Amino acid sequence: MKSRAAIAWEAGKPLEITEIDVEDPREGEVMVRLVATSVCHTDAYTLSGADPEGLFPSVLGHEGAGVVEAVGAGVTSVAPGDHVIPLYTAECGKCKFCLSGKTNLCQAVRATQGQGVMPDGSSRFSLNGRSLHHYMGCSTFSEYTVLPEVSLAKVSREAPMDKICLLGCGVTTGIGAVFNTAKVERGATVAVFGLGAIGLAVIQGAQMAGASRIIAIDINTDKFDMARQFGATDFVNPNDYNDPIQQVIIDQTDGGVDYSFECIGNVNVMRSALECCHKGWGESIIIGVAGAGEEISTRPVQLVTGRVWKGSAFGGVKGRSELPDYVDRYMKGEIMIDEFVTHDMPFERINEAFELLHAGKSIRTVLHY
Ligand code: NAD
Ligand code: AHE
Ligand code: ZN
Ligand code: ZN
C-alpha cells in the first residue's frame, strides 16, 4: 500500500512529506486509514532529540482517529469499516499489569513499541526499501498505518474523527489524570501548571469534579482566556512575582492546594508543583514528559510531612474498555473537545502545526488527510 506520510529523518529537522510503502497487517495486526491526526507536545519532544526512546528515521504521531482498512489473521475485535482511535497505551486484558486492577500500563507490546517496531520485531513502513521506525505504537503521521489489535479502541461511527482524534492523547490524559490518578473531590483546590491541551483538559476535569478553585498557571498569558472557558477561577503568571511560584500559590490558598498538576515537562516546575501542595495531604501529579538525563528533586521533608508525588500516563485510562465511553460522552455534550482545536489544516502542512505549538499560538492543530 502506498501512503502519504511525514518522515522524521533526524532530530531537530522539519518532517518530510512523501509517499511511503506500508505492508499488509500480519497476524494480530490491523491496518488503519487515518482520517485526522493532531500534534501533541510529545511528538515535538521526540523530534527535538530529547527522548531517550527517540528513533530516526521514523513516522511520528500518536493522536489520531481513522477507519479499519484491513485486518491480519486472528483479529476478532475489529473489522474493516470500524472507526478506531489508536492507543499508545495498549490494553491486552491478559498481562500482569492489565490484570492487576491497579494500572492502565499494559505491557503486552510496550517493549517492541519503544524499539519502533511491531511485536514481531519488524517494521511495516519503508521508503525505497529502507525501513522506517514506528512511533509509540501508533504512527498517525501516515495516512495508512499498522497497529497491534490490542492498540485500538473501537468507537462510535457517528463521532467526528477530526475532533475525537484528541481523545487519542491530550483530552483523555488531562481528564483521566483528574479522575483516575488524583481522584479530585468536590470542593477541592487545584493548581494547574502549563495551559496547553493537557493543562486545559485537567482544568476541564477539575471543573467536572466540582473543584472549588482552579488556579491556572502559565508564562504565556494568552492562554488564560481559554483556561477560563474550561473553568479556571484564578490566573497566575509566575513572571509577575519575585517569590518562588510555590510560595505565591501557598500564600493565595491558606497553606497550599489539595491537588496540583504539572503539564509542561519542566523538572523545576515539577518541584514547584509538589511544594505548592498543602502540608499533610496535598497531592501533585506529574503529567509532563522531561528530557533524557533530567531528574526531579525536593527535600524529603516535603513528603515526610504528607505531600504525595504521583505520575500519570494517558490519564490512567484503559483505552479499549474506557475510550468508547469518552467518545459517547463527547457526543452527549458532557466532554468539550471542539474548543481545543484552534487550527485545522491539510496534512501536508504538518510542519506549520509544529511551529504553532512551539510558538505558543495553538492548543491543537488538527490535520486532515
Ligand atoms: P503545550 O506545549 O501545548 O503546553 C505547554 C504549556 O506550558 C504552554 O502553554 C507553555 O506556555 C507552558 N509553559 C512552558 N514553560 C512554563 C513554565 N516555566 N511555567 C509555566 N508554564 C510554562 O504542550 P501539551 O501538548 O499540552 O503537553 C504538555 C506536556 O505533557 C508535555 O511535556 C507532553 O510531552 C506531556 N504529555 C504527557 C502525557 C502523559 O500521558 N503523561 C500525555 C500527553 C502529553
Ligand atoms: N519515551 C519517553 C517516555 C515518554 C512518556 O512518558 N510517554 C507517556 C505518554 S506521553 C503522550 O503524549 C507515557 O505513556 N509513558 C508511559 C510509558 O510506558 O512510556 C522516555 O522518556 O523514555
Ligand atoms: Zn500525547
Ligand atoms: Zn495488558
UniProtKB/TrEMBL annotation:
Residues 197-328 form the Alcohol dehydrogenase-like C-terminal domain. One of its GO terms (cellular component) is cytosol. Keywords: Metal-binding, NAD, Oxidoreductase, Zinc. It catalyses: S-(hydroxymethyl)glutathione + NAD(+) = S-formylglutathione + NADH + H(+); a secondary alcohol + NAD(+) = a ketone + NADH + H(+); a primary alcohol + NAD(+) = an aldehyde + NADH + H(+); S-(hydroxymethyl)glutathione + NADP(+) = S-formylglutathione + NADPH + H(+). Its EC number is 1.1.1.284. It holds the Pfam family ADH_N. One of its GO terms (molecular function) is alcohol dehydrogenase (NAD+) activity. Its cofactor is Zn(2+). Has high formaldehyde dehydrogenase activity in the presence of glutathione and catalyzes the oxidation of normal alcohols in a reaction that is not GSH-dependent. In addition, hemithiolacetals other than those formed from GSH, including omega-thiol fatty acids, also are substrates. Also acts as a S-nitroso-glutathione reductase by catalyzing the NADH-dependent reduction of S-nitrosoglutathione. This is S-(hydroxymethyl)glutathione dehydrogenase. The lineage of its organism: Bacteria, Pseudomonadati, Pseudomonadota, Gammaproteobacteria, Halospina.
